[in-house]
Structure formats: C-alpha cells, structure tokens
Specification:
This protein is α/β, with parallel strands linked by helices. The chain contains 11 helices and 7 strands. The chain starts with a helix and ends in an 18-residue tail after the last helix.
Length: 319
C-alpha cells in the first residue's frame, strides 16, 4: 500500500470515529431527534473498501451507514446536519440517519430496511453492465441481512448475469441482540457463496492490509466481467445496536477484548513502523480531525430547520 492511500484510510477511519462519538454525545444531550445506529469499531471496513473507489463507483448502505457515507466522500458538517434534521444536510434534513445519500459521490443511500440495499446494488450492477461502464457497485450489509430473502435472490441474479457487484457482509456477530449462532446455520456467511457458484472470502475487519488485499481481488474479478464476490468481513461494534441499547445480551469483557486490538490504533502503529507516516503526522491527523469535527458540530447546531413551506418539495406522487 502506498503512503498516500494509507494516510487517506487512516484519516477516514478517524473521521468516522469522531463523527460517531459526536453523534452519540448529541444523542445523550437530546440534540438529535430519534436514535442512531453507530459504526464505532467497524471503521476499517468502510475506509479500506472506499479508498479504492471513485465517484463513478456505487455503494449501497445500511441502517448503520454513517461510516459508509463518510468514506464515500461525505463532508462531516453536511452529514451531521442531516442527522440533526437541518435544511443544510445532504438530503435537506429529510433522510435523517438511516436514509442519508449523496448521488454525486455514487452513494445510493442508507436503508432502514434490513437487506433493503442488496437488490438496489444488484440493480446498479445491472445498469453498469448494460451501459458497458467500467465501474463497480459495493453492497454493504450486516450478518442479519444475510438471512433475508433479498440476499439470496439478489446474489443468485448477480451470479447468473455476472454483474460487477461486491457483496460486503459486515459480520459484527449480532443481529440487533441475537448472536449469529442463534440465527444462522453456517458458522461463516462466506460459505453461502458456494450455492451461487461465486467466491466466498473472509477478511479480518481489524486488519486493513488483509481487508485491502481481499477486496482488491474481488474488485478485479468484477472489472474483468467474472461476476460478484461475497466478502465476509469479521468485525465488531463497540456500542449497542442503537444509542439506547442497554446491551444486556452480550459480555462487556468481549467488547473490551475487541477494543484492545482497535483497527485505528493497529493501522497507525503499522504506518509508523513501516515508514508510511511519522508519529508526528499521526498525531496531527487526529488533532485535525477533531478540529474539523468541532467545526462540523457548530455548523450543524447553527443550521436552520427545514421551512414547512417546502414540505412537498422533492415528493413524487400521483393524483
């Protein structure tokens, strides 16, 4: 990995972490309407995958989608404004946390429906093939979505038509409060790929280099016209399913074990040890990100709420 992309990944991971922690703080202070589903702990997946994409490549996201949105090029101020329902947000305050999108960056949107983004990604992949474009669509989804019908139907269709879609399953071990082993018959979700005649690959979601190698192989396969890959990323979320989750269903000691091998710290150390960055540069990135996040928070807090006079703008209906 070259220095420029390594710095981008590290910076992006820190941006996602800072954004999620600020969102949690605002929720506790009752400055956010409703709850949010935080990506804290899973930052390496979105940052590493999106470091290889351009604005012409598509992604579809999930209810836990802030990280994907930021990694695909979203500005922190407009993203936080959207979460807070402000008119300056990416979707004018209409999408909130679970439907944030930015088509200009190829982000086709988060989705509150579990597994809802999977057929959308497949459709985007079909459009790429029909228009003879040379880009890909990355479909992010969680382990819970792998038990939805949309998962099986979409991967089957993508495999038949050899669509340039990379299905990235972020397996954090829980579907809301249900452990994977209580909801899923296979130990590794990647094993399900064999039923559709495509590669099923497992990546360590806390190892940027492992993630990068395996995603790039899947992307190359897609660009060659060889069809989709199911990439299962083993990861973990530090916080509950949502901001009000009491987390009584899991062992806090296990959470601390995951935190002890934090991907941001791990990759920062790797960069310093391998001459990709100095410790001074690492420290400056963190300081700069924190400053940017503070400015984003000020922007969002001072942004206006949507004008009720524009209630029907961007609404499509018959009648």
């Amino acid at each position: 990995m070259d220095r420029e992309r390594a710095l981008w990944i590290y910076t992006t991971m820190n941006k996602i972490r800072a954004f999620e922690e600020k969102s949690y703080k605002f929720f506790e202070e009752n400055k956010l309407r409703g709850s949010v589903h935080l990506y804290t702990g899973e930052e390496a997946c979105a940052a590493t995958v999106c470091s290889t994409l351009t604005d012409d490549d598509y992604i579809t996201s999930t209810h836990r989608g802030h990280g994907h949105c930021i990694a695909k090029g979203a500005e922190l101020d407009k993203a936080l404004a959207e979460l807070m329902g402000r008119a300056t947000g990416y979707c004018k305050g209409r999408s909130g946390s679970m439907h944030i999108a930015d088509f200009s960056k190829g982000n086709l949107g988060a989705n509150a429906i579990v597994g809802g983004g999977i057929p959308i990604a497949t459709g985007a992949g079909l459009s790429i093939k029909m228009l003879k474009k040379t880009n890909v669509c990355v479909c992010f989804f969680g382990d819970g979505a792998s038990n939805e019908g949309t998962f099986h139907e979409s991967i089957n269709f993508a495999a038949i038509h050899k669509l340039p879609v990379i299905f990235v399953c972020e397996n954090n071990g829980f579907g809301i409060s249900v452990p994977l082993e209580q909801s899923t018959a296979v130990e590794d979700i990647a094993d399900r790929a064999v039923g559709y005649g495509i590669p099923g690959v497992i990546a360590d979601g806390y190892d940027v280099l492992d993630l990068d190698e395996k995603f790039l192989a899947a992307k190359e396969r897609a660009l060659k016209g060889e069809g989709p890959t199911l990439l299962e990323v083993k990861t973990y979320r530090y916080r509950g399913h949502w901001t009000g989750d009491p987390e009584t269903y899991r062992d806090r000691a296990v959470t601390e074990e995951w935190k002890a091998k934090d991907a941001i710290v791990r990759f920062g150390n790797y960069m310093v040890e391998n001459g990709l960055a100095t410790q001074e540069e690492i420290d400056k990135i963190q300081a700069d990100v924190n400053e940017e996040m503070d400015k984003a928070a000020e922007f969002a807090l001072n942004s206006p709420l949507p004008d009720p006079a524009h209630l029907m703008d961007d609404v499509f209906f018959e009648g």
